[in-house]
Design a protein that fits this description.
This protein is of the alpha/beta class. It folds into two domains: 99 residues, 60s Ribosomal Protein L30, Chain: A, CATH 3.30.1330.30; 153 residues, SPOUT methyltransferase, trefoil knot domain (Alpha/beta knot, 3-Layer(aba) Sandwich). Helices cover 38% and strands 22% of the residues. Strands 8-7-6-11-9-12-10 form a seven-stranded parallel sheet, with helices on both faces. Strands 1-4-3-5-2 form a five-stranded mixed sheet, with helices on both faces. Strand 7, helix 9 and strand 8 form a beta-alpha-beta unit. The chain is elongated and about 65 Å long.
């Protein structure tokens, strides 16, 4: 195959646009992946990969990916090692890149099950936190993660932070908390607000029976009072010493562990 050396190549230009522009990702319905492990996970989970780029060096090392998966519909391109460094968003690029199509958007009622266990993230803004929480949700085996006014799911930083869990986890992006609470109520799902409040219910005493959903708020401000007030239960992690709060990803992990009954 011909080796691409210019950033002006149409396929390379598309990759670069998608890697830096939220607007372009939203407009096209596509996003980018970088790294052999991440792209292998995407392939194994049958994500909608459109193009894969290998640097010359990476093709020799990683092209076994092609023989292990059905990539008949995927456009494979070889780029120069120098170009791979230029388009990479990581400190130590592996020379493997991909353009992937976003999965079809589901309706909330099709996403929610009456006996399901869900995590709702409200106004989370840190890509690393979001990615880590999705990975934790995948690890404990909850039924889905719902994003409410959060940072962009398909940004390269979030995708990398999930370490492949984004391809396995059921994720729904919601724009309406009214719709969310209405759907939970119609399906008999109890909602738990994660709060810092001595009057809130001790998390260790929560049973999480039946369908349920835990709400985790913004890193700096937590859940807004109106959101917490609409939840069935306000629950808190009892802490000792002089600590009165935890990182959002850590708090979510503790709630997820308790909810999953592990």
């Amino acid at each position: 195959m011909t080796v691409i050396t210019s950033k002006d190549n149409p396929s390379v230009k598309l990759y670069v646009k998608l890697s830096v522009s939220k607007k372009e990702r939203k407009k096209s319905g596509m996003y980018v992946l970088e790294g052999f492990r991440l792209i292998t996970d995407a392939v194994n989970e049958k994500s909608l990969i459109k193009q894969i780029f290998f640097t010359e060096e990476a093709y020799e090392k990683y092209s076994s990916m092609l023989s292990q998966a059905d990539l008949k519909e995927v456009k494979v391109l070889i780029i120069s090692n120098e170009l791979g460094i230029k388009i990479s968003c990581t400190e130590k690029p592996q020379g493997v890149f991909a353009v992937c199509e976003m999965p079809p958007v589901k309706k909330l009622n099709d996403f929610i099950r009456k006996d399901g266990k869900y995590l709702v993230l409200h106004q989370l803004q840190d890509p690393g936190n979001l990615g880590m929480i999705i990975r934790t949700a995948d690890a404990v085996g909850v039924d889905g993660v719902i994003l409410s006014e959060c940072c962009e799911l398909y940004s390269p930083k979030v995708i990398r932070s999930t370490m492949g869990s984004v391809f396995r986890m059921n994720i729904f992006e919601s724009t309406s908390t009214d719709e969310l609470f209405s759907c939970f109520e119609n399906n008999g799902i109890s909602s738990y607000a994660a709060v810092i409040d001595s009057d809130a219910y001790d998390l260790r005493k929560c049973t999480f029976e039946g369908g349920c959903a835990v709400f985790i708020g913004n890193e700096g401000n937590g859940l807004p009072a109106d959101i917490a007030g609409r939840c069935t239960v306000r629950a808190t992690i009892r802490m000792s010493g002089h600590i009165n709060s935890l990182n959002a990803a850590m708090a979510a992990g503790i709630f997820l562990w308790e909810m999953s009954g592990k």
